[in-house]
Specification:
123 residues, globular, 4-stranded antiparallel sheet
């Protein structure tokens, strides 16, 4: 089991950058594949990025590919999402999540979730 706590959201102007962090408890953090999802009102959580364990393979949603970077520091039990060139349409609540399974783009496959962190991008 892992408990995830997020930090780093906020309000920025279009074109700016933010870095989200997600710190996990427990000694098994490094064994989980980790993902970022976003959610806006009245819509389901949408996949943003994942990074596998082991190996560190990663992938992004088309909408953020080339602008966002996912990384993890297992020594610090921390997952990151570097968000560059932010756009107003990136405005959402962002969630980190952990799964021990192989399915990684579907939010229903994830077992553990952070509390959510709001990102607001103004034009």
């Amino acid at each position: 089991q892992v408990h995830l706590v997020e930090s780093g959201g906020g309000m920025v102007q279009a074109g700016a950058s933010l870095r989200l962090s997600c710190t996990g408890s427990g000694s098994t953090f490094s064994q989980y594949t980790l993902g970022w999802f976003l959610q806006v009102p009245v819509r389901e959580r949408e996949f943003v990025a994942y990074i596998r364990a082991p190996g560190g393979a990663y992938s992004y949603a088309d909408s953020v590919n080339g602008r966002f970077t996912i990384s993890r520091d297992d020594a610090k039990n921390t997952l990151y999402l570097q968000m560059d060139s932010l756009k107003p349409e990136d405005t959402a609540t962002y969630y980190c999540a952990a799964t021990s399974g192989l399915v990684v783009r579907n939010s229903r496959a994830y077992d553990y979730w952070g509390q959510g962190n709001q990102v607001i991008v103004s034009s």
